[in-house]
Specification:
Structural class: alpha+beta
Number of strands: 6
Distance between the termini: 50 Å
CATH class of the domain at 50-171: Alpha Beta
CATH topology of the domain at 50-171: Nuclear Transport Factor 2, Chain: A
CATH architecture of the domain at 50-171: Roll
């Protein structure tokens, strides 16, 4: 345990910090978070029709092959929404400078999705699952994608973001070979003395004793965990009491 003077030395700075950074409430007015924001309306859900599914499947497959897998990147310009192309020139995009994380996608189920996250009249959010190419060193990946329908009736990718990776990375076939067996260690040499064989005595290694000074670190951390909320609470209480007294004086 820390001595009392050490506890006081830790608690006083915490109390002062709580008083300094705490902000008293206004005794005359109670305010809260704004719940209803004017002008913000939740779009109405709409069915993801078969026709839209077929169109989205074609666009999504093309986008993964070009923008994600970086094969003929220039073809992905036309199937990307203006919001995704914002800040990039056509020349930059064609060079591979686009806001899409590259991924070596295998040609397996491209254009399919795991499930539909939301569906509106001209917007659909999907979760897709991609498999990596063999030997790429990447794991299978889940990504979120949003597609929007323009005024011309064509679907375009408006958002693409990898979400998580699954399983071990895909390694090359040569790397899957089992490692070579290690040779057994040679036996310790024996000594001959008076016609008898005796093993060499094992070396004795002294184990250093841990220093007691390391106990101070966890004890200090435990004291901070206990005293920090207490110090902040006392600081807020003192600040609120001060504000209440000032409000009472102003009212009288």
């Amino acid at each position: 345990m820390l001595p009392p003077i050490a506890l006081v030395a830790v608690a006083i700075p915490l109390i002062l910090l709580g008083i300094h950074y705490s902000s008293p409430g206004n005794p005359g007015t109670a305010t809260g978070p704004n719940v209803n924001e004017p002008g913000l309306e939740q779009p109405k859900a709409a069915p993801f029709t078969k026709a839209n599914q077929r169109a989205v499947h074609r666009v999504l497959r093309e986008f993964i092959l070009t923008a994600v897998d970086r094969r003929e990147v220039a073809r992905s310009w036309e199937i990307s929404a203006p919001s995704m192309r914002e800040g990039f020139t056509r020349k930059q995009w064609n060079r591979g400078e686009l806001p899409v994380v590259p991924y070596p996608a295998a040609n397996r189920g491209l254009g399919d999705w795991s499930f539909v996250q939301y569906s509106y009249a001209d917007t659909v959010g999907l979760e897709v699952f991609l498999f990596p190419k063999p030997g790429s060193g990447w794991s299978a990946m889940t990504a979120d994608v949003e597609l929007v329908k323009g005024h011309d009736g064509r679907w375009r990718v408006d958002y693409w973001m990898p979400k998580r990776f699954h399983g071990p990375p895909a390694v090359a076939a040569t790397a899957k070979a089992s490692p070579k067996k290690q040779k057994p260690a040679k036996a310790a040499p024996v000594h001959k003395a008076a016609g008898k064989r005796s093993a060499a005595p094992p070396a004795v290694v002294a184990t250093p004793k841990p220093s007691r000074i390391w106990w101070i670190v966890p004890i200090a951390l435990l004291a901070l965990i206990v005293l920090a909320p207490l110090g902040i609470g006392i600081g807020i209480w003192i600040r609120n009491r001060r504000a209440a007294r000032e409000y009472s004086r102003a009212s009288t």
